[in-house]
Design goal:
The protein is an alpha+beta fold and 424 residues long. It has helices spanning 68-79, 84-87, 123-132, 154-161, 169-175, 180-183, 211-218, 235-238, 240-254, 265-268, 273-293, 332-341, 360-381, 386-390, 393-423; strands at 13-17, 19-24, 39-46, 91-95, 97-101, 106-110, 118-121, 141-148, 198-199, 209-210, 307-308, 317-318, 325-326, 328-329, 346-348, 354-356.
Length: 424
């Protein structure tokens, strides 16, 4: 429910629920009319309680919601259950005064001059929350920073707070043509040239998926670093930026000459890249069906972390890679460990390139229901926490072993059949 200013009391007073409220005293002394020492207050606010019309005239940057940065904030808001308030820098506002009612845990913020009071940083986060919170069921919090006494220098403060965006690794890598290694196999993924849809650098507003996401998906099949069940690529869920750094590291260390790049895991997987991405999309598209096949209890859309369309909502869900329509949006913590388990079917061919020893789609068709059943049960043992599930190495290992065991059974059966045939 949107919380608006209490106009019947004063048009500049905002009251709403808050958690973990605290003051950060100025080391140069407390604020007073004479000292003017600014004071900083912090708290967490549930996004549904955030006021819908903080003044924005004080923010020096126009908020474009079509940039890759904005899309990343939106993705984090939708998927980072329990961690959004930590990963996101939050919202900073200037105000005349702030008080906290410990009895009912509500905060009251007074703003008297829209030229110096209002949002000074985090405008993208604020607008994205307002535009998407009606479609979010699970609790999400955002960090709110309130600065009192900044009127005399708020322009300098706003300028300083809005110049902290650094050039990201992917922009540098694209400039140095490091992504040429994977662009060729991306030209044909189920007849789609994904290069046209991938943001290889920042602020490509017309691109719907970041190269960081693509790299994190592919990194699951790096059998050089993850050759068996003992080591699992959990970082593909918990640290997408790490996967990108590893991609750049491989490129820097192994180069792009014909001989040296043959040691690069991403070069080795070139032939199976379209298959990996198609498999990821297929899993995302069919998890709800597999859940029904598993005799799972309750509706798939009611599971913690799964997003479903609300009645009357115009929100649409799409698969991450091929942009297909979805009835339910599964959390990455469901999809990635299942996808990664099919690394058990990958080996090097005679040229040192990766190949699938068996058809992963057939194995998913056979094992998918058991996989999602195990996934949901594991999530429940972790307190229905999808984020904890995505970081649970044991869960990734169990799914990998499920595929590995099935493949070994297949090999044994094939050997037995061949032995029978040779004895005839």
């Amino acid at each position: 429910m949107d919380i608006t200013p209490l106009n019947e009391q004063t048009p500049t007073k905002y009251e709403f629920a808050a958690k973990s409220f605290r003051a950060l005293p100025n080391p140069f002394g407390e604020y007073s009319e004479s000292s003017k020492n600014p004071v900083v207050y912090e708290c967490y606010v549930e996004i549904q309680d955030l006021p819908s019309d903080f003044p924005m005239e004080t923010n020096p940057r126009e908020q474009s919601l079509t940039t890759q940065v904005a899309k990343s904030i939106k993705e984090s808001l939708e998927t980072d259950l329990g961690n959004f308030q930590i990963k996101n820098r939050g919202i900073v506002i200037s105000a005349e005064s702030v008080t906290f009612n410990t009895r009912n845990s509500t905060i009251a913020i007074n703003m008297t001059d829209v030229e110096v009071h209002g949002n000074i940083d985090g405008g993208h986060t604020y607008r994205i929350i307002l535009g998407n919170r009606s479609d979010i069921v699970d609790p999400r919090y955002v960090r709110l920073e309130i600065i009192i006494g900044a009127e005399d220098f708020f322009q300098d403060l706003a300028k300083a707070r809005n110049t902290s965006v650094q050039v990201k690794d992917n922009s540098i890598a694209e400039l140095e043509k490091k992504f040429e290694l994977i662009k060729e196999p991306l030209k044909d993924v189920q007849g789609m040239d994904l290069n046209e849809s991938i943001a290889f650098k920042e602020n490509e507003a017309n691109k719907r998926i970041s190269v960081e996401n693509i790299i994190s998906i592919l990194y699951n099949f790096n059998i050089d670093d993850f050759p068996d069940a003992e080591r699992q690529p959990v970082s593909t869920y918990s640290q997408k930026s790490y996967c990108l750094k590893q991609y750049v590291k491989f490129h820097n260390e192994m180069g792009d000459s014909e001989d040296s790049k043959k040691s690069n895991p991403f070069y080795k997987m070139n032939k199976i890249i379209p298959e990996i991405l198609t498999l990821y999309d297929h899993i995302e598209l069919t998890l709800d069906k597999k859940y029904r096949e598993s005799d799972g209890k309750g509706r798939y859309g009611a599971l913690k972390g799964v997003q479903s369309k609300k009645e009357g909502s115009h929100a649409t869900f799409k698969t991450e890679v091929l942009d297909k329509d979805l009835e339910f949006k599964s959390p990455r913590s469901f999809v990635l460990p299942i996808l990664s388990s099919f690394r058990a079917l990958v080996a090097e061919d005679e040229n040192g390139l990766y190949k699938f020893e068996a058809n992963p789609f057939e194995y998913y068709e056979h094992l998918g229901a058991q996989m999602i059943k195990n996934t949901v049960e594991r999530s429940r043992t972790l307190g229905n926490n999808p984020n904890a599930l995505g970081k649970d190495t044991g869960h990734w290992r169990d799914l990998y072993n499920l595929v590995d065991l099935e493949y070994k059974k297949h090999l044994i059966n094939r050997l037995m059949e061949e032995s029978k045939t040779s004895n005839l």
